[in-house]
Amino acid sequence: MSRQFLFLLMISATTLSAADTKPAPTPKLKTFKPGFNFFSLEQDVQMGKEAAAQVEKQYEVVNNPELNNFIQTIGKKLTSQPQAGNFPYTFKVVADTSINAFALPGGPMFVHTGLISAAESESQIAAVLAHEISHVALRHGTHQASKANLIQIPAAMASGMLGGGLLGTLEQAGIGLLANGMLLKYSRDAETQADLMGAQIMAQAGYNPIEMARFFEKLQTESGKGSKIGNMLSDHPNPENRVKNVEDQIRAMPQKSYTGEGGGFDRAKGLVKSLPPPKKKSQVSQGGQGGAPPAVGVVPMPSLSELRPSGNFKTAQNGGFSIQYPDNWQTQSDQSGGSLTIAPAKGMINNGQAIGYGSQFNFQPFQNGQQVTLQQATQSLIQMLQQGDPNMKVAQNGQQIQVDGYQGMITMLTAGSPFQGQKENDVLLTVTLPQGVFWGVFVAPESDMPNVQGTFQRMIQSIKFAKN
Ligand SMILES: [Zn+2]
């Protein structure tokens, strides 16, 4: 039992004894429903099947009957719980040493060998599977895809099925749901739902739900220490109070002893150990980064306290523009290219040649009365950035904004991070000025983008261009 959980129990015990007349209200079990969705349940299943076929081409599926049986037995106990719904769940083990598991819409589930190695009990594996099952049952993948492509998906579906399946049809319409990880990366709200419903599912199946809190806590503590933790946490980003929320939910459950572990855990770990090292590099869930060669000059991830912005801002002035930035970050201007880097010292790598955390700004003047639209400028910048990092992908297309009265655009990108074991999120800002294109890139490891996003926004809002 974690210290935190003991502490909580102690508090609730004191509260109860102090309140003689009115007992503390018992927390309620939360229930969840799927959000809005353009796809039907059948389409979830169809899409999942198509995506699974692609996954199996790129991953090395482990064909060890004993290991498969171990995972499938856990899976069956979990999916027979009512919350799992009627999806045709399947469970496969794939040879990949990173700690992860992922579920596709409609039920196909893949468990990395690295997850089995990292788990400390059968219940911890059950915790991850129950969490994934909840993503499937609550249809988080297709919900998210629907939300992110509000206009494109109905249009693509109206154009009729063109053969090549559902994913193919969407892909032809420019909606690469699998390639950009849309089906596998979840919002923090979705994570909380999957945690809480997953905890209920596993408890009903006889597994101690505290193991879910414990496993995520372990991932959290160890993230940053090694390179193998990043995957799980970046596909399933930590919502606030993750562990506490699960613990609260457990208090709402009827007390029982958990005897669901079927045995075979040590044996399964041994089997994983005896497998030959993975031959294939898996790339599907990572939008290209998972098994891709690490970016040049990868360095260990510094501690977040050395990177995160302070709440106090100061102003940097750079010829054509001024911007406010956190006062614990540094500025560095590149004399030749005229670019300005604003980042924490540990966020600049190789003397600022790469940025793992922070921002960089540039200005490209128009030549000979040349004019480009905001879209054209953004497109060519993305192409340019992609030449520097072939793993760079557009995660969300441009959104128009105003910057100091000028038309600007924000594009979300994902890329390989110069920090070991991290994926990167980039916010590309492009602004067309009368005399040229101003652009900035705001960079953070995907796992920390939610924490620094507000700072980036504040920086963007503070930009003032020299009027002449
Ligand atoms: Zn998740």
Gist of the model:
The strands form four sheets. A seven-stranded antiparallel β-sheet has the order 6-7-10-14-13-12-11, with helices on both faces. Strands 1-3-2 form a three-stranded mixed β-sheet, with helices on both faces. It has 468 residues and is of the alpha+beta class.
Could you explain the architecture of this structure?
- The protein has 468 residues and is of the alpha+beta class.
- The chain has 15 helices and 15 strands.
- It has a 7-stranded antiparallel beta sheet, with helices on both faces. Strands 1-3-2 form a 3-stranded mixed beta sheet, sandwiched between helices.
- Helix 3 packs across helix 5 (122-137) and helix 10 (210-222) runs antiparallel to helix 12 (242-251).
- The longest helix has 18 residues, at 41-58.
- The chain binds zinc ion.
Total number of helices: 15
* Mean of pLDDT: 81
> How does the helix and strand content classify structurally?
alpha+beta
Tally the structural domains.
2
Q: How can the largest sheet be summarized?
A: 7 strands, antiparallel
Number of distinct beta strands? 15
Sequence of secondary-structure elements: HHHEEEHHHHHHHHHHEEEEEEEHEEEEHE
Q: Trace the largest sheet across and list its strands.
A: 6-7-10-14-13-12-11
Output the radius of gyration: 24 Å
Helix content: 25-40%
